[in-house]
Amino acid sequence: MREDLLHFIWRHNKLPTNQLCTTDEEPVLVKSAGVQNRHSGPDFFNASVAIDGQLWAGNVEMHLKSSDWYAHHHENDTNYDNVILHVVWEDDVVVFRRDGSKIPTLEIRNFIPKELLAKYTALMEHSRTGFINCEKDFGGVDPFLLESWLHRLYMERLEHKSELIFELLNKTKNNWEAVLFTLLAKNFGSKVNGQFFLDRATELDFAMVRKTGQDLHQLESLLLGHFGLLNEPDCTDGYYLQLVKEYHYLSNKFELPRSMSKPEYFGLRPPNFPTIRVSQLAHLYHHEIQLFSKCMETSSLKELYDLFDVEAGPYWDTHFTFGKLSRKSTKKLSRKFIDLLVVNTLIPLKFCHAKYQGQEVDEGLVGLLSEVGKEDNSVIANFDGLGHKTKNAFESQAKLELYNNYCSKNKCLQCVVGTHLLNRNT
Q1: Which residue of 96, 163, 246, 379 shows the fewest CB atoms closer than 10 Å?
Q2: pLDDT of 126 over the 90 cut
Q3: Half-sphere exposure of residue 106, counting CA atoms within 13 Å on the CB side?
Q4: DSSP labels for 373-423?
Q5: What average pLDDT score do residues 220-239 get?
Q6: What pTM was estimated for this model as a whole?
């Protein structure tokens, strides 16, 4: 038994209204369940409940056991002074407010419809063996209901991604160009080196990128050195030594913080090696130093493909790492990689910039994301196996949010699909 079932029952009026009474045998009639509060404080605000003929307006708190009131120290919290009813699964202790007045308690374990409890138990027990709890019924969910829910989920995902962006904006004193550079560095680092690249980019004053941007050799030296890729004391490669010399000059001139650690190569395909990605990043900023402004102006996927149509330097045509020759190939940003930048950096940044300026979020963002192909991973493959095939990145991003923050955490009763299934025929 979980508290979220109590919330669901209360929110959806699943209790037999003519039979309810408190533990003191006072009749209870719920006029209004109130508004659910998912933050700190009582579980439902502004409820309206008649107790023994007296109408009360206030808040409702819910627990599995009455004694949880004291376990959570509500007796000392002013936020709970206006609780008019304590709804519990099991009443095991009398509960009082701070002023010593007794709080009416409604024990609901004997009032819950057996069919509802059986459906809930079956749903939650399935989590032990399946991909998601509702996988047997997911394919039969109304497409319109699912589409609406996916839209809300994607907005939630954007809000979550906004946290890092606004944190970076604060650190850079509202320098959007610097924020974009830092986020791109994180994404160019991929899952393996993303956090390392993010940390290093945060430590680099973006003014240094601007100052060296017109000189490609300086910029590439700066970034390769700053991201820990010029720490090969035994390397005698001529190009490597040129970069080291230039980086030492820059780091001494600008008193740059040097990296003593290195990014990882293990688990990466050669085109994703950090040497290649940093060179591509250097070439991108050499061509477009005002990149943020250009990104904000673009409104189509094709424009973004053109904007990010860059490749690593000529040295990397025959190398993946310093001093080791490889078969010649141009190291260009692929469409698939640019898609990842659009999904993980550019659209969240457009979203945050609109919020920062007090503008409504443009539905064009969803349209732009819908142009991008769906992500290829096990979560999306499993969802596709249940029906409602994923058509694009908008849907795959929403389903990732659904899986990560609802399905995998058993928050079925906070999910539109879960509440719909539990509401059917009960």
Answers
A1: 163
A2: no
A3: 29
A4: PPP-SHHHHHHHTTSS---SHHHHHHHHHHHHHTGGGT-GGGSHHHHHHHH
A5: 94
A6: 0.85
